[in-house]
Amino acid sequence: MSTPSMCKAGNLDALELVAADGASATISLFGAHVLSWQTADGRERLLLSGKAALDGSRPVRGGIPVIFPQFSDQGAGQRHGFARTTVWQAEECGELEDGRQYVEMVLTPELLPPALAAAWPCRLRYRVTIGGQEMQLMLQVDNLGDKPLHFAAALHSYLRVLEVRDAVVHGLQGVRYTDSVSKQDGVEERSEFQLSDKYDRLYRHLLRPLALETGQGRLHLTQSGFSDAAVWNPGPADCAALPDMADDEWRDFICIEPAQISPVALPPGQSWIGRHSLLVE
Ligand code: TA6
């Protein structure tokens, strides 16, 4: 039985998990950011940009950024929130009896600058468990204050695909969306679809689990707590404009993100939990 160990990812302190069956993950304490996830068959399942800043100067491009307490620019705070640019604390890690490995990280007010800590009296707990062909993620928000806590959250997963135009997204038929490319709202009519250029939609109130044909297996995406999902790819022009992505990297991923877009109003002393399972068939 082994235990997770500390390592470096660029200049970032990170934890390396290796399950008994060889599945592995690297998780940076900056942002509690999953940088890499390899299933037991040795395949990398996430896209971490070759140009990602691994020095804490900006959010890491790729992997799984934790979005909290604001989604995108929908609020007065930092774009996609402060959780992805704060150094979390590893509280617990180890190996389970079945050989899977896990780490649990926390983000408490003491880890935030005073003004943010005063505005956000809450504790985040994020647990990542890997083994076999699956990764499980659990994000918990505890309201430590004496007023309702209003927040949005998402796990902004950059899912690796062999070629984006061949990848197929399943499970969104009948779900209402807002499309920020066409600026239109609608109801998804397609039972499955492919992306050919820039794509940026928020789907509200999912009806069933999602799946992605990656070109290297079918990835089953099952979420609870999070009611919504974002589907995003920058396409060639926006990708070329991103300073921390290589021009053609848009072809290597689709972001399908479990999300809670409409803010939760969490009463004092209560907890909210969002879960996500990624399972390769
Ligand atoms: O989740 C989709 C989205 O909000 C897109 O609109 C897109 O810009 C993406 O997130 C990446 O945001 P970032 O701040 O990481 O560049």
Question: Topology of this structure?
Answer:
Blueprint lengths: L4 E5 L2 E7 L5 E5 L4 E6 L27 E2 L21 E7 L5 E7 L6 H6 L2 E10 L2 E10 L5 E7 L2 E3 L7 E3 L5 E4 L4 E4 L4 E2 L5 E6 L5 E4 L4 E7 L3 E6 L1 H7 L11 E14 L4 E10 L1
Antiparallel strand pairs: 1-2, 2-3, 3-4, 5-10, 6-7, 7-8, 8-9, 9-21, 10-20, 11-20, 12-15, 12-17, 13-14, 13-16, 16-19, 17-18, 18-21, 19-20
The structure holds 6-O-phosphono-beta-D-tagatofuranose.
Account of the protein in words:
With 281 residues, the protein is mostly beta strands. The chain has a single domain (5-280), classed as Beta-galactosidase, Chain A, domain 5 (Distorted Sandwich). The chain contains two helices and 21 strands. The two termini are 26 Å apart. The mean pLDDT is 97.
Terminus-to-terminus distance: 26 Å
As laid out across the biggest beta sheet, the strand order is 6-7-8-9-21-18-17-12-15
- β-sheet strand percentage: over 45%
SSE topology string: EEEEEEEHEEEEEEEEEEEEHEE
Rounded radius of gyration (Å): 18 Å
Provide the CATH topology: Beta-galactosidase, Chain A, domain 5
Specify the helix fraction band.
Answer: under 10%
Q: Which architecture per CATH?
A: Distorted Sandwich
How many domains in all? Answer: 1
Count the E strands: 21
Shape designation? globular
What is the CATH first-level class name?
A: Mainly Beta
**What does the main sheet amount to?**
9 strands, antiparallel
- What ligand species are in this complex? 6-O-phosphono-beta-D-tagatofuranose
Q: Report the total helices.
A: 2
| Structural class by sheet pairing and helices | mainly beta
Poorly predicted sequence stretches spanning 5 or more consecutive residues: none
Mean pLDDT level:
97
